[in-house]
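Record pair follows.
FIRST:
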Amino acid sequence: MASYLGIKPKRSWKEAVVRFLQVKATLRDIKQYQGNCRRLDAYLGDKLLNDINGDTVWAVVQGEMAQGKAIATVNRHLALMRAILRMARDEWQWIDCIPKIRLLPGEVERDRWLNREEADRLIAACAPHLAALVRYALATGCRAREIAGLEWNRVDLARHTAWLNQTKNGTPRGVPLNSDAMAVLEEQIGKHPQYCFTYRGKPIRWELTNTGWHKALARAGLVDLRFHDLRHTWASWHRQAGTSCDELKDLGGWKSRQMVDRYAKYSTEHLSAAASRIENGRGGNVIEMSRFCHGKTRAA
């Protein structure tokens, strides 16, 4: 009867989460979505969608901040909450309106990368299977799952190319293999019939930032380094070497320039000519301000 009268049945937050996770089920980072949903369940698990308002959002922010969570972590939870509510409103028509959810200001963009000497120390400190993964990541900029899941039938050593069918943004792409990447792959030949990178003869199914990773960091004297920072290192090295942002965008498989522009600061070659214009002794068109008279003009 309610539906005939245009009255929408009341839906719960948990119902929205279940459908949201079903929609996202094919994504590679589905486990991260699941974990963040469980985190939000402490605040929203007993609520109906119509009962979620600005005070609810504020409670999430205050609750997370009270537990010492970083602004970036809180913002991930807020973004997920906003995405689920928007989907419930716009796609499923379960609710008519949602509260405005703004992300917190002050989030510091992560800027962690290795110099060449640090990278060499890390490789030397890693077990052989992990060293191969690190070397390949630094040579190609591929993400951890793209490397661990790489299969031989998607590698053409003769053409120095690998093809990724499962990427973060869902778009397959080719990866040109430089001599460093080729050397790593050639060392893996014969270890497994299907997968390029293995551990003790089996495909790598676990998270790469594990105990072995942390032990290697300790031996190398490195702190605050994630495996994904190797991709940042690769991109930073490219910009320092003069690779353009457009080239880097294609190499790394980014869909927009926005994600690539963060590395623009590492390249200054194109500004060197401008910086040299005021070098001592060159003069140029610099005006000598002392030549101008700033006193009162005499009356005629």
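SECOND:
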Amino acid sequence: MKLNLTSVALALVLPTAVFAQDSVAVSTGNYPNAYTSGSANVSPFTQASKRFNDWAISAGAGIPLMQSSDLTSIKGFGAGKNLYGWSAYLSVDKAITHAFGLKLQYDKGESRQGFVNTKDHVASPTGDGARTQYDAISLLGDINFSNLLRRVDNHSPFRWALHGYAGVGSLSYRAYRQDAGAAYNQQLITEVKPFKLGSLFAQAGAGLKYRATKSIDLEGRMMYIVTGDEDFDGAGGRSYNGIVNDNPSDNLINVTLGATLNLGKHESHLFWHDPLQEIYYKLDVLADKNQDVEVCKKGDADNDGVCDDWDRQLDTPAGARVDGAGVALDTDLDGVIDLYDKCTTVPGPVENNGCPTTSSSTVSDNTRTLEGIEFDLNSDKILPSNTPILNNAVNYINSSSGSYNVIGATDTRASDAYNQKLSERRANNVKSYLIQNGVEAGKLNAIGRGEKDLKYPECEPATKCPEWKNRANRRVYFEAK
């Protein structure tokens, strides 16, 4: 046997892994889960729930033609008549997905090759003739190219399908030869038993199927059989007309017509079953007004439109808008949900209904401290909302005789060193703005204190506080010297 066994194994296993991958997915059987909806119409895929057939029996007959050998079945022009044998096959077929399946197939036949038809039982004055009786069992991969390459938006039924086949198996045969120049004298030249190392063979080809009825498919098929044996043609190592066949394998072309009987009670076989029919079926079920559809298995306790199966906040107040997980929305992240927030886009404390307090933008004569200049996360840019406060600060500082420290601060996110630099940039930007708007440079001194001077010390770490408190810590304020 001269075939590379590793290559043959890869040729069989690799397409099986590629085209059968969606058939080996593991399901826990628990519904609903993170990958399915909570609808009662979704159920685990089982043999009992499927609505298609996936087993079949195929049979056919045809003509084997010996090629790539010393003695061939098809003759060139003027080299004698063509010789035809017979062949038949029977297989048990299993569809694994809509595009891939397996066949366990038995082949039987007799090829005729050479310069005389051995079935005539007459002398052969012009040249040798031979016939080979063979039996074979093989495992074939079956690729449904029509389903594999079909557009997913093609909803129309189809009745033609192109299939590709490839596989390996065990081949046994008897080769008989009739010598030229003598009376009828056929003799057994070579015999190979099945299931031996030297009996390994491969075959591959294509078939065109037509769906005649829901249970019967008709098919024309052409297979190329690689025997791996140079004695398969019955030549017995001879050369003919000065030509020696150097190929290590005598090969066959087998042309057949056959039929497939699809087994099962369903309307269609998996190879003819549109994968999208499962979706159409569920849509039809939901559209059926006579069927009660259980939307939520565990109900919706807070009536927010999110089933309790998925709801992360089972006590949402009535009237509150929620996200996909059933959590009440808080647009400005200040800890006050939008239902109760008087200022949904501006953060503010709970005690002020989610709105910022006005006292933070004023000047306190008792402490001579100016506040209310806040910054976005990881930013030293002066926001438009800070402009009125800074303009008030310009007027106050110019009307006073004192000088002021412009102090920058941050929240507790990031490292101490990074926050120190960020606070210094914030203080210097505010100082520059005041100078550009008329404040004497000598009255101002920029200082950065990083995260060491929190307005809300309890926000360490920042995750302990709502966003409005962390924003208040990201600030610049003024102190009289």
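COMMENT: The CA atoms of residues 30 and 322 lie 27 Å apart.
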